[in-house]
Amino acid sequence: MVEPFATGDDQLNSKSVSSDRFRLVLLYVLQLTSVGASIAAVVLIWYYMGWEFGLPALLITLVAVFIASGWWRWWHIAFVTAPRDIKALTRYIKLLGLVRKHAKNNATIGDIFAEFVSKQPEKACLIFEGRSWTFREVNDYSNRLANVFHSHGYKHGDVVGLLQENRPEFVATWLGLSKLGVIVPLINHNLRKNALMHSVTVANCNALIYGEALADAVAEIADTLPSAVALYQVNEVAQKPVLANAKDLTTLLQSASKELPVNGVTKPNHHDKLIYIYTSGTTGLPKAAVITHSRYIFIAAAISLVAGFRADDTFYTPLPLYHTAGGMMSIGQALLFGATVVTRKKFSASQFFADCQKYNCTIAQYIGEMCRYILATPVSPTDKAHKVRLIFGNGLRPQIWPQFVERFNIPRVAEFYGATEGNANIVNIDNTVGAIGFVSRIIPAVYPISIIRADPATGYSEPLRGKDGLCQLCKPNEPGLFIGKIIPNNPSRAFLGYVDKGATEKKIVRDIFRKGDAAFLSGDLLVADERGSLFFKDRTGDTYRWKGENVSTSEVEAEVSNACGYRDTVVYGVEVPNLEGRAGMAAILDPERQVDLEQLARTLKDTLPSYARPQFVRLLSKVDMTGTFKLKKLDLQEQGFDPSGIEDSVYYLTTKGQYELLTPEIYEQIKRGEVRL
């Protein structure tokens, strides 16, 4: 039966099934019969007993019909969710107004930042491990860097990769290059060898700026980089040695002008490409997602306005600045709204709220894995001695949500969901525990996102279509694929995709609710409750999330197979009790037990970032294949890593970086959290 609050698409999908249509018609007939009998009874009472009895009978009948029809439920949902929806709508309208103002002014990130440099030059812009950078200092550094690269011939449309650990110079560097119209790929500094090489070449970099601490990683790929890629090394101090054929950028910056270069510079515009942010999906190695000035403005402004940030807030983020969360959502509050942002080189669970107290932070950013680590720290006086009024992020599990906010005295949690490149971005604005956002049950068309049924045969990564070839909407509490309708000229609905056009097309699903429409396919399974609150269920297909990072199984499979002499290998994520995301598990066909696990661990340490290394290895005696000669991943994934239920030998990655036999005793210790992964 169609739910009372269903959309027109719900009804269309239901009517496509004959049995549903029959039940619907029968229901209407019964309701009409009931209504007719009720009206007749009211008329008789009114006629024979007068209006004193007839009027109450009429009111009672109307209420009864209203309840029987099911429409009371819709009105109840509307009444309960109206405050949330009105608040969100008001903030969304304000967001669209701000975005359109910047579009009308053809504003870039540099233009908006310059306004705050003029208004508040000595205000702290970035604070990094005790050192404060004012708006003026960030601007001066960015201008110096722009002058160096302008003098070296870099111009609008060129691409200069950036490989640095968290530090204020990271932000000032890409900001300075953006003033020339140079596009800056923000490369994950954990990558090595093949993955690092791919990140540089897939973006067609003309040059690469790297930090002194990452010189060894660059040296490993220097000989295989295209000869046209120039290298710039940033040292802690000037006049220090650099890699062969690299330029000493630190020394060059000392003599550069801190004035904005103008002569011979083509000013970028609002819709120009600004940065590339790498995202790991279902197609293998990191993909470079395109972020324009307009897209950066929209993402930073969206979380600011919808979540209720203020310009006088001080933000704390220990997240990597090469990611959307830290590099856009938090850093964007300084660049676009004049706020102060505190960051640090690496996340520390014990120092999280101590830092918030030290720097008087009012808003802190997290990912779910971080929250678990913080909650596991010993109770401290700093737990509630801070001024944090709101935390925002993604991945705070419902299982620890209440304990976290209670222990650390957090008034509000703005859990959000979104992909770097996607348009299906949502925010929890009403503190609903576990919710990652919502879809309005009253006016769903305002923000066209949907949950559609998924095909189990594809690992729930592809839509399930009806006889008409169109997708089918999920009902309340039914998990499905989360999608966002694509409207090219709408900043909140556009999908800019990746540098790789083939990868872009794979993230688009067409013919959703009518022929010719299109939507961004998130690759995640979500579920909506009756009130429209959305909850994350799982990743789909060949990607899982571990340690706050998306891991592409096809990339890990290739590295594991290469390290094992090109043996058949399948990689998948398995759930570990009380841990966020899924731990990587590699199943390797090795009936003769010839795989050298010590060598495997050493090789994977060199070729994969820590979060992508399989936590478990299963040596298969035999393997079942599909009709297209693919390993049956879903069967292996369902079996998990419990050695008592698996005939094959299973090994786990110890904190020493070695694979050791997983016994039932150690398995139980992992479940209890006594053995750390």
From TrEMBL:
<dbReference type="GO" id="GO:0005789">
    <property type="term" value="C:endoplasmic reticulum membrane"/>
</dbReference>
<dbReference type="GO" id="GO:0044539">
    <property type="term" value="P:long-chain fatty acid import into cell"/>
</dbReference>
<dbReference type="GO" id="GO:0005324">
    <property type="term" value="F:long-chain fatty acid transmembrane transporter activity"/>
</dbReference>
<dbReference type="GO" id="GO:0000166">
    <property type="term" value="F:nucleotide binding"/>
</dbReference>
<dbReference type="Pfam" id="PF00501">
    <property type="entry name" value="AMP-binding"/>
</dbReference>
<dbReference type="Pfam" id="PF13193">
    <property type="entry name" value="AMP-binding_C"/>
</dbReference>
<dbReference type="GO" id="GO:0004467">
    <property type="term" value="F:long-chain fatty acid-CoA ligase activity"/>
</dbReference>
<keyword id="KW-0812">Transmembrane</keyword>
<feature type="domain" description="AMP-binding enzyme C-terminal">
    <location>
        <begin position="555"/>
        <end position="630"/>
    </location>
</feature>
<dbReference type="InterPro" id="IPR000873">
    <property type="entry name" value="AMP-dep_synth/lig_dom"/>
</dbReference>
<dbReference type="GO" id="GO:0005886">
    <property type="term" value="C:plasma membrane"/>
</dbReference>
<protein>
    <recommendedName>
        <fullName>Long-chain-fatty-acid--CoA ligase</fullName>
    </recommendedName>
</protein>
<dbReference type="InterPro" id="IPR025110">
    <property type="entry name" value="AMP-bd_C"/>
</dbReference>
<feature type="transmembrane region" description="Helical">
    <location>
        <begin position="55"/>
        <end position="74"/>
    </location>
</feature>
<comment type="similarity">
    <text>Belongs to the ATP-dependent AMP-binding enzyme family.</text>
</comment>
<keyword id="KW-1133">Transmembrane helix</keyword>
<dbReference type="InterPro" id="IPR045851">
    <property type="entry name" value="AMP-bd_C_sf"/>
</dbReference>
<feature type="transmembrane region" description="Helical">
    <location>
        <begin position="25"/>
        <end position="49"/>
    </location>
</feature>
<dbReference type="InterPro" id="IPR020845">
    <property type="entry name" value="AMP-binding_CS"/>
</dbReference>
<keyword id="KW-0436">Ligase</keyword>
<dbReference type="InterPro" id="IPR042099">
    <property type="entry name" value="ANL_N_sf"/>
</dbReference>
<feature type="domain" description="AMP-dependent synthetase/ligase">
    <location>
        <begin position="113"/>
        <end position="444"/>
    </location>
</feature>
<keyword id="KW-0472">Membrane</keyword>
